[in-house]
Design goal:
The complex is a heterodimer of chains A (about 450) and B (about 500). Chain A is about 35% helix and about 15% strand. With about 450 residues, chain A is of the alpha/beta class. The interface between A and B is large, with 201 and 197 residues.
Chain lengths: ~450, ~500
C-alpha cells in the first residue's frame, strides 16, 4: 500500500483495540446510501514511483526547449544550486506553519530575516511573511489602503492602465466582491508612461490610493517622485508595485517623492529572487508598509522577543489581525502563504548580496538595451515608446504581432508577448532579457526575427 | 540541533560575497539610459557573506524545526501526512521548472496534459462536474467558491441574498472569506453531540441566505449525520452549499461531496494530496462545482480538443462568465504537479485506502488515549480522521492547561496537536494521525501522553514550565506584540 505502513497484524491489533470487526465498520455513522457505490471507476490504477516518474519525465520533455524572451511578470534568472538544495531539506519542506514557536525557531528566524531583507530592499519599515503572488498581493494592498487611509471615505483606487493587465484583472476579481472600484488612469501614448497630466481630471476627488508600478508593464520607468507627491497632495495613499531585482539599482519606494516621503504600501512579485519560472507558481508576493499602517497589514508577521530565560527567540505576532483569531473581522482570509518560496528567496538574496543583485539588475538592463538595439536595426522594427526602460521593452513590428510570434515559436524562439489583446496594439510586442542570455542568444533572436519578417 | 542564533546580517562583512553566483559588474556606462533621479543612492543593506556561510547558516537553522520528516506531527485539520520525495523530484524536472507561464500551448502540451488529467482525477474523487486548479491555497479556494455563489445569484438577478451561514465550529477562514466576498456572516450553533443544531439552522435559512459553508466530517472530528437534511433546508431556501475540503482526507474514496449535495467545494492539496506545507505554504486549493456553477469557475483551466487530442487553455475569452483570474498566471503549478504525482501513484484503490486507514488510525489513537485517562469531547461518537480531547479536568484540578500539555509533548519529541480549536470545546486537542504513521509511532505518542498525565498529577511544574529541551523556552508573546521588533537593525 503506497505510503501506508500497516501490516495485516497491525490492522487486526488496531481494530481489536477499537472493538470493531472491520475497517468498514468505522464508517457506520455515514448513511449507507451516501457511500461511494461507484468505486471511483474513472480513476486509473495506481502505479509505482518509477512508472509515474517516467511518465512525468516524458511530459516534461514534451514541453520543447525554447529560447525565451518572455517576461510580463515572470523572469528567467540564474538560481544558485544551494538555494533549492537547502530549501527542500525536509526540515523546511515538511514543517507546518510555525504555530508552536519553540519547535519552529528555524522557520521563524528565516521569516524574520526575510522581513528584514524585504524592508531594506523596498526602503520600508516592516514586511509581512509573504502573500500568494504579486497580483493577489496587489488586491490585499488595495483592501488594506481602504482600511489605512483614515482621511478617505472612498472605495475607489486609481490604477494605471500601464500596470500589468494580469495584476489588474486578478485584483479586480478579488476586490469587486466588496464593491471596490478600480478607476483607470491612462498612459501617454508616446512615452509609455503614466503622467501626472493623466491624473489631473481626478484632482480634488476622493480616492483611497494611487497604484504606481515601477517599472510599468511596458518596462518603462515612471516618474515615481511626481506621481507620489501628486497622490499625497490629494489625500491618497501610494501603493507601489515593484520588481525586487530592480530595487538593487532603482530608488526604493520608501524614498519616492521629492522629499523622500515614500510610498505607504509596497507589493510585488518575489519570483525573480530565486524562484524558478515553473509555469507560474508557486511564487510569492512580498508586502511591506510604513510602521504606521502595520496593524492594517494582512498575513503572518514574525517578531523578535525573549524566552523566559531572557534568550532571543522568534514568534508569530499581531495575530489579532488574522482569521484564526479574528474570524469575520480579520484583515484578510489568508492563512497558508508561500513559506517555502520565501525561504528560497531569503537564501538567494543572502547569496547575491547587495553587489551581486545590482550586477544581476545591471545585466538585465544592459542586455535588454542591447537586444532592443539589435531588433530595431531590422527594417520596420521600432521602439513603441520613448521612456527609459529597466529590463523589458515594447517594440512595434511591421506585421501582425500574434502571427510573427507564432512563426518565431515554430523556430523554438519565444519572442515576447503580444500587446494586441490587452492594449489593441496589433503590431506590438513586449520583450525581456536577463542575465541568462548570451550575446549569441540575442543574435539568434535578431536573426530569426529578420527571417520571419522578410 | 544547532544553537545558531546569529542572524545572517551579523555574519556580514563589507566587501565579502558569494562570488560564483553574481555576473561580473556592469559599467556605469551601460546604465546611462536610466535617469540619475531614479537611481538608488545607497546600496540596500543586504548581507555580504560567502557561499559556505549562507549554506551553513540556513542548514543550521533548518535543524531547529520539527518536521514530518523528523517527528510524528498529529495536527488536527492539517493532515500532516508523508510528503513523497518522488513527487518533489518529478515537479523539479527541468522541463517543468523552466517553462514560462505564458509559453504558448504548442510548447506546453506535457504540462497541460498533467493538469487536464489532475482536473479529471479531482472531479471523479469528489463527485463534482467541473474543477479549476487556479486557487493558490485553501483560503483562496474558499474565496473562489463563495465568489461563484455570489456570481450565480447575481446572474439570476437574485440580489437580496446577503448572508452566509456558518456552523460555530468552523475554521476562521470561513467567516473571513464570506466577508471578503461582501457577505454578512450568521453563525449556526452546534449541538452537544457535534452535529449542527438542525432546528436553529432551519430558522436561520431564508430569502437572505446566499449559502452555507461547512466541513464534513466537521471540525468536531465527527461525520455530520444530518447532512442531507441540512442540504435540503439550505437548498429549499434558495441558498447553495459550500464544502470546505479541509477534512476531505477522512472520506476520500468513501463518500463524495458531490453525492452529499454540495454545490461547490475546495480541496487542500497540501493536506489531502500530500504536498508539503513548507513551513507555512505554498498550498493549492482547487475548486470543484456542480452543474449550476460550471460557468463561473476561475480561469485558466486546461482543456482538450476532442478531435486532435491537443490541450489548450480555457480562459475568460471563452468563459466570460468566469469569476476571473485569482493570480497573475495559473496558481501554484509546482504544487499541482506534486499532487498529480501522488494521485497517479495511489490511483483508484489508493484513494479509497486513504479514507479507510486515516479513519482506522484516528479511532485507534482515540480508544487508546481514552484508556489511559484522556477525556474525549464526543465519547459516544466514531472518530473521523481526527478527534477532540478536552483537558478541562486537568485545567481545573491541577492548573495544567492544554497549552502546557502541548508544550510538554515537544520535550518527548512529539509535535503538539492543534490546540484550542474548535473554540467551542474548552482546553482541547484536535488530533489527526493520518494514514502514513505506523502503529509504533502512535504508540510512542500514547506513551508520552501517559507520562504527561502522570506528571500533571505528581509534578505539574514539569508540564506548566515546559518545554525544557527546545532551542528556546516559552516565549514572551506580550513583549513581542507590545515592543514590535519585526525587522533587524544593527543599532
Amino acid at each position: 500500500m503506497p505510503y501506508i505502513p500497516h501490516t495485516p497484524d497491525d490492522v487486526q491489533a488496531m481494530l481489536q483495540a477499537i472493538g470493531a470487526d472491520s475497517i468498514e465498520a468505522l464508517f457506520d455513522e455515514i448513511p449507507a446510501h451516501l457511500k461511494a457505490g461507484h468505486g471511483l471507476d474513472a480513476l486509473p490504477e495506481g502505479r509505482g514511483e518509477m512508472e509515474v516518474t517516467r511518465l512525468m519525465a516524458e511530459r516534461a520533455e514534451q514541453d520543447r526547449f525554447a529560447l525565451s524572451f518572455l517576461g510580463g511578470g515572470a523572469y528567467a534568472h540564474h538560481i544558485p544550486a544551494a538555494v533549492w538544495e537547502i530549501a527542500t531539506r525536509g526540515e523546511f519542506y515538511t514543517a507546518y506553519t510555525p504555530y508552536q514557536a519553540e519547535a519552529s525557531q528555524g522557520t521563524l528566524q528565516v521569516i524574520y530575516e526575510y522581513q528584514t531583507l524585504i524592508a531594506r530592499l523596498t526602503g520600508m519599515d516592516v514586511s509581512n511573511a509573504s502573500v500568494y503572488d504579486g497580483a493577489s498581493g496587489l488586491a490585499e494592498a488595495v483592501l488594506m489602503s481602504l482600511r489605512a487611509n483614515r482621511k478617505s471615505k472612498s472605495r475607489k483606487v486609481l490604477v494605471p492602465d500601464a500596470l500589468n493587465p494580469r495584476y489588474r484583472s486578478a485584483c479586480d476579481a478579488i476586490v469587486r466582491n466588496q464593491d471596490v472600484e478600480l478607476v483607470s488612469v491612462p498612459f501617454c501614448a508616446d512615452a509609455g508612461q503614466t503622467l501626472v497630466d493623466g491624473l489631473k481630471e481626478h484632482e480634488g476627488q476622493d480616492f483611497a490610493a494611487l497604484v504606481i508600478s515601477q517599472p510599468n508593464y511596458f518596462g518603462s520607468l515612471e516618474d515615481v517622485d511626481a506621481l507620489t507627491d501628486w497622490a499625497h497632495a490629494n489625500g491618497q495613499l501610494v501603493i507601489a508595485v515593484v520588481n525586487p531585482t530592480s530595487l538593487a539599482i532603482l530608488t526604493p519606494p520608501g524614498e519616492w517623492g521629492a522629499d523622500g516621503e515614500g510610498a505607504d504600501i509596497v507589493v510585488g512579485e518575489g519570483q525573480p529572487l530565486g524562484i524558478p519560472l515553473s509555469s507560474g507558481g508557486p511564487y510569492f508576493g512580498f508586502m511591506a508598509c510604513t510602521q504606521k499602517h502595520v496593524r492594517q497589514m494582512p498575513g503572518r508577521i514574525i517578531g523578535r522577543t525573549i524566552d523566559l530565560e531572557g534568550k532571543q527567540g522568534f514568534t508569530l505576532t499581531l495575530q489579532a489581525r488574522e482569521q484564526h483569531i479574528r474570524r469575520s473581522k480579520a484583515t484578510s482570509n489568508i492563512c497558508t502563504n508561500q513559506g517555502l518560496a520565501m525561504t528560497a528567496a531569503t537564501i538567494y538574496t543572502s547569496l547575491l548580496g547587495p553587489d551581486g543583485l545590482a550586477s544581476v539588475a545591471g545585466h538585465c538592463h544592459a542586455n535588454t538595451q542591447k537586444l532592443a538595439d539589435k531588433l530595431t536595426a531590422i527594417d520596420g522594427v521600432e521602439r513603441a515608446f520613448t521612456a527609459p526602460v529597466f529590463h523589458e521593452v515594447a517594440l512595434t513590428l511591421p506585421q501582425d504581432a500574434d502571427s510573427v510570434l507564432a512563426r518565431l515559436a515554430e523556430k523554438d524562439i519565444l519572442g515576447g508577448l503580444s500587446l494586441a489583446k490587452d492594449y489593441g496594439m496589433k503590431n506590438a510586442i513586449l520583450v525581456n532579457s536577463t542575465e541568462v542570455h548570451t550575446e549569441g542568444d540575442l543574435d539568434l533572436f535578431a536573426q530569426a526575427l529578420k527571417e520571419v519578417l522578410a | 540541533m544547532s544553537n545558531e542564533t546569529t542572524l545572517i546580517f551579523q555574519h556580514s562583512r563589507p566587501g565579502r560575497s558569494a562570488t560564483a553566483q553574481a555576473p561580473k559588474p556592469v559599467s556605469e556606462d551601460q546604465l546611462s539610459a536610466i535617469p540619475a533621479s531614479l537611481r538608488r543612492k545607497n546600496k540596500p543593506g543586504l548581507p555580504e557573506v560567502g557561499e559556505l556561510e549562507v549554506v551553513r547558516h540556513y542548514t543550521n537553522l533548518s535543524t531547529k524545526n520539527f518536521a514530518i520528516d523528523k517527528q510524528f506531527y498529529p495536527l488536527g485539520s492539517c493532515t500532516m501526512k508523508y510528503n513523497p520525495r518522488g513527487a518533489n523530484r518529478a515537479a523539479m524536472l527541468p522541463g517543468f521548472l523552466n517553462r514560462h507561464p505564458l509559453a504558448p500551448a504548442s510548447h506546453s502540451q506535457g504540462y497541460l496534459a498533467c493538469m487536464y488529467e489532475l482536473q479529471n482525477f479531482l472531479k471523479e474523487v469528489t463527485g463534482m462536474k467541473g474543477v479549476s486548479l487556479a486557487p493558490m491555497a485553501g483560503a483562496q479556494g474558499e474565496f473562489a467558491g463563495v465568489a461563484m455563489i455570489r456570481a450565480y445569484h447575481e446572474a439570476r438577478g437574485d440580489d437580496a441574498r446577503t448572508e452566509i451561514l456558518i456552523p460555530e465550529a468552523a475554521h476562521g477562514t470561513n467567516p473571513a472569506t464570506a466577508v471578503m466576498c461582501g457577505y454578512k456572516v450568521r453563525e449556526v450553533p452546534v449541538g452537544k453531540n457535534g452535529d449542527v443544531d438542525l432546528e436553529a439552522l432551519k430558522e436561520a435559512c431564508g430569502p437572505q441566505t446566499a449559502g452555507l459553508m461547512m466541513t464534513n466530517p466537521s471540525t468536531c472530528g465527527v461525520f455530520e449525520r444530518q447532512i442531507e437534511a441540512i442540504s435540503k433546508a439550505v437548498h429549499d431556501a434558495g441558498g447553495l452549499l459550500y464544502y470546505d475540503g479541509a477534512n476531505l482526507n477522512a472520506i476520500l474514496g468513501k463518500v463524495r461531496p458531490g453525492d452529499m449535495g454540495f454545490d461547490v467545494i475546495h480541496m487542500n492539496l497540501h493536506k489531502t494530496f500530500a504536498t508539503p506545507h513548507g513551513g507555512g505554504g505554498p498550498g493549492a486549493g482547487p475548486v470543484g462545482v456542480s452543474q449550476r456553477l460550471l460557468d463561473y469557475l476561475p480561469t485558466p483551466m486546461a482543456g482538450q480538443d476532442s478531435e486532435s487530442g491537443d490541450y489548450h487553455w480555457i480562459d475568460t475569452d471563452t468563459l466570460p462568465t468566469s469569476i476571473g483570474h485569482l493570480s497573475a498566471f495559473m496558481g501554484n503549478a509546482g504544487v499541482l504537479l506534486r499532487a498529480y504525482f501522488y494521485a497517479m501513484v495511489l490511483g483508484r484503490e489508493g484513494m479509497i485506502r486513504v479514507g479507510e486507514y486515516s479513519t482506522l488510525a484516528a479511532n485507534y489513537l482515540l480508544k487508546r488515549l481514552e484508556a489511559i485517562g484522556c477525556q474525549a469531547a464526543y465519547p459516544e461518537r466514531r472518530a473521523s480522521h481526527e478527534f477532540i480531547l478536552t483537558f478541562a479536568k486537568q485545567a481545573k484540578d491541577n492548573h495544567v492547561t492544554a497549552l502546557d500539555i502541548a508544550k510538554r509533548l515537544l520535550d518527548y519529541n512529539q509535535h503538539a496537536p492543534t490546540i484550542y480549536f474548535p473554540l467551542l470545546v474548552p482546553e482541547c486537542f484536535l488530533i489527526e494521525p493520518t494514514e502514513t504513521e505506523t502503529k509504533e509511532a502512535m504508540d510512542d505518542f500514547i506513551d508520552a501522553m501517559a507520562k504527561i498525565l502522570e506528571e500533571a498529577n505528581t509534578n505539574p511544574e514539569t508540564v506548566t514550565e515546559a518545554p525544557f529541551t527546545q532551542p528556546v523556552r516559552r516565549l514572551d508573546e506580550v513583549k513581542a506584540a507590545k515592543e514590535l521588533d519585526l525587522v533587524w537593525s544593527e543599532a
